[in-house]
Sequence to fold (930 residues):
Amino acid sequence: MYFLNLSLVQFLTLFGAVSVTMVLLYLLGRSRRKQVVATLRFWVASEQPPAVHKRKRIQQPLSLILQLVSMLLLLLAIAQLRFGAPMATPRDHVLILDTSAWMSAANGSRTLMDEAREKAMAYVRTVPASEHVMLVRADALTLPATAFESNRAKLEQAIARSTPGATALNIEQALAFARQAQALGSGRPGEIVYVGPGRVTAESRLISAPLPKNLRVLETSDATDNCGLRKIGVRRSAADPEVWDIYASVRNYGTAPKSLTLVLRFGGTPAGGHRFTVPPGSEREIAFAWRTRAAGLLEATLLPHDRFPEDDHAILELPPLPSLNLTVYSNEPDLLRPAVTAIPHVNATFRRVEEYRAEATNGLVILDRFRPPQPPKGDAIWIDPPAGASPIPVRTRLEGAPFDHWCSDDALCAGLRAKDLRLGSTYVFESAPDDIKIGQVREGPVIVARAGKNKTVVFGFHPGLSDLRYELATPLLFGNILRWMAPELFRRSAVAAGSAGTVTMQLDPDIRPEGVRVLQQDGSPVPFTTRGRTLRFFSGTPGTVRVLAAERETVYSLTLPELWDSKWEVPGGARRGLPVFRETASLSRDLWQVLAVLGGLGLLLEWLLFGRAEGRVRRLAARPAILRRPGVRKAS
Amino acid sequence: MPPGPLLERQFLEKLERLTIHWQKSFNGLVGGHNSSRFAGGGQEFLDHRHFHHGDDLRAVNWRAYLRLEKLFLKMFQVEPRVPVRMLVDTSESMNSEGGLKYVYARKLAAALCYVGLVRLDTITLQPFSSRLGEGIRCGGGRHRFSPVMEYLNGLQTEGRTNFLEVARQFISAHAQRGLLIIISDFLDDSDCERPLQHLAEFGHELLLAQVWSEEDRIPPWVGDLDLVDAETETRLRLQFDESARQQYTRAFDAYAGSLQQVAMRNGGRYVGISTAMPIEDIIFGSLVRSRVIA
Fold:
């Protein structure tokens, strides 16, 4: 006989407290009460014997005994009194099934996953029918597949549906989850069983928490003959934007050196290859260079294939080289040519003003001192337009006005410096509150930028016909304007192929963490953390994730499986192999339902025998008194 | 904090349609609203009787004299103005169990006063405990109700009940018969039936309003009780249980029955009032049913 919920000391303490409280309340309820009444005549009429001076303290002992016994029974029900030995209660086992990416490695005609499933099912069949098993699938994340379940068919279905994931095993997290599940379960903690080869990441190998004493390991065979791609990084060369620098990292997971060939194909055509040898247990980095302006798929294949072909092949999507079509309508193109052709990725076309067609323009246009018959349909830079044709109203025109200052708080004016400039003839514009006043004379703005569906910049003067022609600020100003109008032109792209799981990325020093966005392929945000200059995010499934940070875009093609770094050393105290259980759970029997009913019946009986009278008095007191109707005499 | 008004204005407005009624026929001057069996100077013909020396010649039926050559006198029905007197118990027993009975009794007195004032009755309100206290006489319409409220608000409980002394003082103070309303718990240790009988035999019509709290009728306590009489401070220790409670209630009901018998035997009325019931239910329920007011 034992308690499931409370220890004996806890039970006795609780019962003692309840008993003392009940006795005190009982005595208080039956203590002599002083009461002032309107008259004593009816009390005397009730003909009760006067109270003796030495009263019996307990006047209705049966009531008190009934209450105490009932409370004892209810407390026994709460404590879950059981017959039998404590060890005879059903146990809760947690079965951790390794579903890491490595489980898809072939071992002969079968995979490691097939072997693990078999062992898991064998374990489930050995567990007594009265005991409960929870199936947990573990890779980088630990997810319960079932609750504590005694239905073996459900457990076997869940085991059969378990498939390898894309990440490596985090054994520490899985064991912590199992311990917590057993602690929160209603039954007695049983075994924590791990089924798998025990290949873990480097972080997981250093388990800080003590290993559970009830750990059992069902090891599967371990095929380590594997070489695979760990990651591939692609970025544009700093020297030549048309050249991609390609870096690949290959790891030899086996125990013997391997001679491998890494073959690159771009758009289906061979793009390079490299033959090399990787020592056992180490990584080798290989660098390539590939020149292309076009977008396309870059495939990397590691030959020859091995038992684990999933990490022998990776595909990256290379973006095209961005460019901007710029059309300059001017009768004096030489005045603007140096400023616009100095910017890379800009395809500048110079046309005479008579050739202007609004619908023919593609990309950005520069309108040099003329009134177009129709306004342009896209972004435009207006240079010294006629007063009536300016998209921004003209306030006045000045001759020989000295230039005053550049705006100081906008990226459009970044790096602009100019002193003692004198503008020959310039318009001063009537700018709107949202306009960006790039350059100003004392009377007002002379270069204004206006955002909107179509971005517009208006010069009140011609930069090639003023002192600005000789200043470094002129090409910088055009560069800033183009960066503002077409930011994608200046965006630096990098592509990396890696494995699913936790991804770590270093941010540039000039990037503010609040401006970083991490997006999935469908545009939905991915949660991430930043600590210092390090950004981390987690992707449990293969896919593409984009990290946008200022003018830098990094595309992660997380298609490679995350593999292990080392083998988990099973502690010596852990049991191994399938166990032999004894069927003992049926000896234990629950009594709390019977005890609860008996306790309730006891309280009911006490109320019927002793408490009902009190209740009746209260009911009578609450009921309006029957008013006596007087007899009516007829008036004489 | 000053006490709130005994009765709300909305409740007073509801009372304005009521009238105090009495059953006996009293002599009195014209001006009341209850007809009397005594003939008087009214307008409505009542009966004929033979003419006696000294009768008013204006009431002789001359047509009958011409036909029968006998003098007959016409008698007319009168609705006399009858004095209404109200005695409110202010003994300490009314203040027991939180003073609920006392508040209730004053509310009832105030309501009946207001009903009488609206019908232009003249009402004398007097407190009593061991003696008859100094009262207030009011009449002349509803605008005279304010002094009554102030008077009732200022009443304090004191002393023990002595109905015999009160009845003696009342008879000597009020020679004219009329309606006598006694609002009390009637919990006098000495017998109060005899004094009430004396009042009735003197010619007053009795209306006994017995106010009790639920604790008075059904004591909620059990076990060892140390009881103290609110008026005499006499102590009584006893064990009280369910059977004793039933005996107590039976004794209380028997006493209330004896009060009812006294009232009915003398042509009066009796109303038992529990403080558990709202005053509005008592006024428009019990009192209207018993034709005290209508």
